[in-house]
């Protein structure tokens, strides 16, 4: 018979902590929350700034274009307006992300190109500025001094 009668024992709690509080998991959680907030902002831009102009242009339907639907068979209602709204939201989100990341952030954070060299001991590719190989721990300064 099992000595630990608790459904979740101390071992399971330790496993859960190791899983849930890893740095990658926390980063993913923060990114998820920021993404959800970003989605609300873009949906607000879509619903309250852009779509009133679209509704003004498509006023011939007599109602909001997001309520536009087709019922080819009784009981089968295809909501085309809702689908178009989601597609426009997606296009806006991707365009705004492109502007923010592709144009603004890349100019602020310039990525530095890391020059690489080959370790004389294990032949692995390492940073040009390295003095010890991270793979074989070979002392690269002694190799450089031997060449001179």
Question: What's this model, at a glance?
Answer:
This protein has about 150 residues and is mainly alpha-helical. It has 4 helices and 4 strands. The protein folds into 2 domains: about 10-110, Non-ribosomal Peptide Synthetase Peptidyl Carrier Protein, Chain A, CATH 1.10.1200; about 115-145, no CATH class.
CATH architecture classification of the largest domain: Orthogonal Bundle
> Quick one: biggest sheet?
2 strands, antiparallel
Low-confidence stretches: none
Return the domain count: 2
The whole-angstrom Rg is 29 Å
In CATH terms, what is the fold-level topology of the largest domain?
Answer: Non-ribosomal Peptide Synthetase Peptidyl Carrier Protein, Chain A
Helix content: 55-70%
Overall mean pLDDT stands at: 76
The structure class reads mainly alpha
What is the number of helical segments per DSSP (H or I, 4+ residues)? Answer: 4
Largest beta sheet: strand ordering: 1-2
Beta percentage is 5-15%
Question: How would you describe the overall organization of this protein?
Answer:
The protein folds into 2 domains: 10-108, Orthogonal Bundle (Non-ribosomal Peptide Synthetase Peptidyl Carrier Protein, Chain A); 116-147, no CATH class. The chain starts with 9 loop residues before the first helix and ends with a helix. Helix 2 (23-57) crosses helix 3 (80-108). The strands form 2 sheets. The protein has a two-stranded antiparallel sheet with strand order 1-2. The chain has a two-stranded antiparallel ribbon with strand order 3-4. The mean pLDDT is 76. The protein contains 4 helices and 4 strands, in the order ααββαββα. It is elongated, with a radius of gyration of 29 Å. Strand 3 (116-118) and strand 4 form a beta hairpin. It is mainly α and 148 residues long. Helix content is 56%, strand content 9%. The protein has helices at 10-20, 23-57, 80-108, 140-147, and strands at residues 70-73, 76-78, 116-118, 125-127.
């Amino acid at each position: 018979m099992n000595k630990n009668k608790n459904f979740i024992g101390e071992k399971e709690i330790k496993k859960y902590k190791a899983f849930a509080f890893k740095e990658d998991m926390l980063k993913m959680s923060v990114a998820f929350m920021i993404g959800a907030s970003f989605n609300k902002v873009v949906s607000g831009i879509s619903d309250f700034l852009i779509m009133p102009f679209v509704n003004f242009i498509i006023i011939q339907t007599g109602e909001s274009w997001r309520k536009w639907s087709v019922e080819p068979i009784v009981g089968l209602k295809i909501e085309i307006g809702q689908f178009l709204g989601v597609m426009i939201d997606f296009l806006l989100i991707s365009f705004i992300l492109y502007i923010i990341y592709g144009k603004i952030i890349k100019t602020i954070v310039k990525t530095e190109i890391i020059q690489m060299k080959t370790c004389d001991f294990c032949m692995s590719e390492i940073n040009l500025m390295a003095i010890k190989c991270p793979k074989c721990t070979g002392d690269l300064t002694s190799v450089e001094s031997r060449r001179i």
